[in-house]
# Entry
Amino acid sequence: MNFFEDLKVGQRREVGSFTFTSGAIKTFAAKFDPQRFHLSEEEGRKSLFGGLAASGWHVGSVGMKLLVLDSQRRASEALARGEEVAVWGPSPGFRELRWIKPVLAGDTISFASEIETLRTSASRPEWGILEARHSGTNQRGELVFSMLAIAFVPRRNKGA
# Structure
């Protein structure tokens, strides 16, 4: 993971893709969002989605998993090169969560993250604050998911 000083506004990273199968959609929905159009193909077809639709929470959860796995992979690679790896702090939250288009059974969503803002924390100058747009795009190139995530990032030069 990068230190705050290594990051730039506009920096983008592709974090992976996932195909939402009917089985995965139904399993997630049964546990966490048991609405009819997430649990049944027939009910999904009768809904305004027009098919079995993944829960927006499922889409966001998959995006988060891919983001974490990509971060872990990048940290392992940096350690193997002998580089110092920054340990990021917690996230104080997110804004602007949008489920833009339905994700239907069989859709493959590619997830990415792009830095929108960077600033030093006023109360904790050893930390920077990053805002990044996490997004998901389907196989047709349509944006289906977006949120603005916030994270604390350690500064290499804590006193600067």
